[in-house]
Structures are given as C-alpha cells and as structure tokens.
Structure prediction request, 113 residues.
Amino acid sequence: MPEVTVDFITKDPWQMVLVEEGPWEDVPASLRRLQERLYTCIDAAIDGKLAELYPDSLGANVVVRLDGYSLPMPDSREFFERFSSTVMDLPDYKAALETSRHVSGIQFVAFFK
Prediction:
C-alpha cells in the first residue's frame, strides 16, 4: 500500500481529513494527486491501517473528508462529487468493503472555502 497522507483524524464520527490548499497551477495534475490521496484513504480504512493505528475505529463507519481552500471551482467540486458518488460502486472496492472487518461503511464529504 502506498504511504497514506492524512492531515488529521477525528473521532465521533471517525473522519480521515484531507486538507488541500490552492491555488493550483496545474489543475489536472493536482486532481490526479487528490484522487490518489482519496484512494489511499479508502484503502487504509478497508485494509485495516486506520484500525491498526486507532483500535477504537474497528468496525466503524468512516468518513473521508476533504477540506479545500482556494481550490479552482467548479473543477474541484465536480471532481469530488463524481469521485465520491461512484468509487464505492467499483467492483473491487464494493467487494472489499463487503468483506472488510475493519470498517462498516465509507462516506464522503467536502467543504470548500
């Protein structure tokens, strides 16, 4: 698994928070980098890395949260909405979540400022 870069974790509810700051010079490259960060968060939750570091999170519903500051709009918002509404329907992720004993579900939320 690639290194997971999460800016911070919150409890009640369990959230893996990614902070992205703009402006971005190369929007497509920055969106690809953000996509990889989101994928590694999902992998860390499903594969148990989160539960390994935070045992109280075992079996919890996890929120992957993006806090975006000065990001290019509407590109960032459209990307996040498209990603978050489809990623858990991908066959590999859907099957992995169904069989994971580490998390019960994964949701997504974003705040853009």
Helices lie at 27-47, 49-53, 75-86, 91-99. Residues 8-112 form one domain. The chain has a mean pLDDT of 95. Residues 17 and 65 are 5 Å apart (CA to CA).
